[in-house]
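The record is kept unedited without comment:

——
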Amino acid sequence: MPVNPYDYFTHQVTSPAWHWEIVWYFFFAGIAAGTYITSTIAQLAGSKNDLQGVIRGYLIGFPVILICGILLVTDLDSPTRFLHMLWYPRENIPMFKAHSPMSVGGWVVGLFGAFSFIGFLYALVKMEKIKTPWLVKLTSFFHESAFSKLFLIIGMLCGFYLGTYTGVLANTSQLPGWTASPLLPVLFLASGMSAGMALMLLVTPKKSELNEYKHKLERADKYMVILELVALALFLITLGQWAGKVTTGFYGFLLWVGVVLIGLLLPLLLKWKPNLLGHRTTLVSSLLILVGGYVLRYVVIMGPQSGYFGF
């Protein structure tokens, strides 16, 4: 009787058994990265009129990364297990392992949290929700001074790392369905960027002075959806013999219907033909992108585990 290579590998290695918490963690991490990256690019390269839209993006990143922390601690069952990735309790010193994606990722997530927190405060200051003088000066220093460009670029790089980190984490596991394609980080980054832009479109107020900003954001999201489609196609091709775990059966149905059709092709159609649904086009297309972004991570994370590790 021929041996299924997937059976052999999954019974010979020890891989993480990831559940719903990790799926949501990967989804929200992508959104946090996507909104922050988009906001920093818009602040660095956009017009002054774009700022009212940009600050809405800054409002999203920090609360979402907090949700990621809660989900990660929930999955680890104990907050101390997360802290042990950052701190060596026996020596009472910080712990950083450059060769460990978990260690590097933990520190980058923390650093990104700091950048996104300052962006969050900056947005509240610009919306006049915070008027405390020292906070106004602090946020202005980081976002409006001569130093701000360097600050925003470093924060943006942290966002790019966060956007790819979830894919890198899966790549460095021992489960063939996650390690076969090196393009998983690229796919997750493109998906996170697209979902982040979609959420920013949803929270941007309907003001005439923001019409140009929304138009630019819609156009950027359209091209990001196309990039995600290309990345997904290449990801599936490079999966090789392991592709069946995500392209057939229940997970295949979710992939082709939930991700490709609902999450990518229909939003792309609505962006090319915005008159199809009138004023509801942005709302519907953005919601579909967000649904597709979650389903993508569910399929990629749960599909390769199906039949193994208790799934």
Summary: Residues 1-14 have pLDDT under 50 and may be disordered.
